[in-house]
Design a protein that fits this description.
By secondary structure, the protein is an alpha/beta fold. The chain has helices at residues 2-7, 14-17, 25-37, 44-47, 58-63, 130-139, 158-168, 183-186, 189-192, 195-207, 225-236, 255-267, 285-288, 292-304, 374-377; strands at residues 85-87, 90-91, 97-101, 145-149, 176-180, 210-215, 240-247, 271-277, 314-319, 322-330, 333-341, 350-354. It has a twelve-stranded mixed β-sheet with strand order 1-2-3-4-5-6-7-8-9-10-11-12. It is globular, with a radius of gyration of 21 Å.
Length: 381
Amino acid sequence: MAWIDELKHNIGTIKQLKQHIRLTPREEKLLEKVVGRHPMSISRYYLSLIDVDDPDDPIRRMIVPSVEELDLSGSYDPSRELQNTKVPGVQHKYASTALILTTNRCASYCRYCFRKRLVGLPSKEVVQKFEVAAEYIREHKEINNVLISGGDPFVLSTKVIKKFIDELSTIEHLDFVRFGTKSLVTFPQRILEDEELLNILRVYSRNNKRVYVVTQFNHERELTEKSVRAIRRFQRAGIVLSNQTVLLNGVNDNPDALSRLMRMLVIVGVNPYYVFQCRPVKRVKKMFQVPLYNGFRVVEQASSMLDGHGKRFRYVMSHRTGKVEMIGIMGDEMYFKYHQAKDPKNMGRFFKRKLSTTAGWLDDLEHIHPEMSQASSHSTI
């Protein structure tokens, strides 16, 4: 199909990139080193959104390699995904949800990717045989939903996606299936040019398990005419769309940018779902992570500019212990709540840490002793 051929023309070398974006000789040399470790792949569509005359362009920052990626602070797996991998390609961290990594490829490789350790690289973390993944889910009846992710599952052929859906449709205790994709953002041609994919999702969602699509718009300029058309196609197929934004330094870390994005998402019928704290990933942390103190204030101010539909998102971090929501600052303390928890005993638990203006992750915050009592830790703040 045309979309498959178009992906073959992605920008994947510094030599190709130089034809579109000005680079100094020093940048060129250093970026060769960067892409030698973490590959570059940029769809021609997404590249066209960059203002090449603006060195601080937010789209450029998210997708074009930077010398800042040479900084090795952080971890390649700060959320300990490997610890939650039960069979190849299947993570089971929260009782009701199974995550399947179906591929290590995407239509474009985001420079802030939290799976930088595997995207575009050989990896044993992706599923080898989908039947094995399905069997694990079948044997664990506490799982009521599956998130199909990667990489981006929509770079796979429609035939392969249908195989996934057919396999999951036989598991009675599943309530719904989610696809995590950024194709709507970086490569809407995938949706616009494949009627078969939409038909499969439409039929499956109506007759078997409800299908949801979770995407990731981080900046208002990503909501182009083509991406909105792709959104409409999903909606006409009866697919509900939600958006997970990552809070990124130099991209959307100000109230105006964040509130405009959320407002535009609501206008086109995409539900704001989460705003994620950028994970402290190697080659990502220094460039993209916003301190929690600043992040909370940005989110709160953005929320104050929005109506009820626009402010439905939660500001969370995917910590190794669970999905932790940042809920407040009082004096010199920051308050948190477990929105999801690896240990069921932590579900819904409130806790606090000493406030820091520089910490970007829960592990960077100092404990407060004594901790809140068990009674107060489960109460409403």
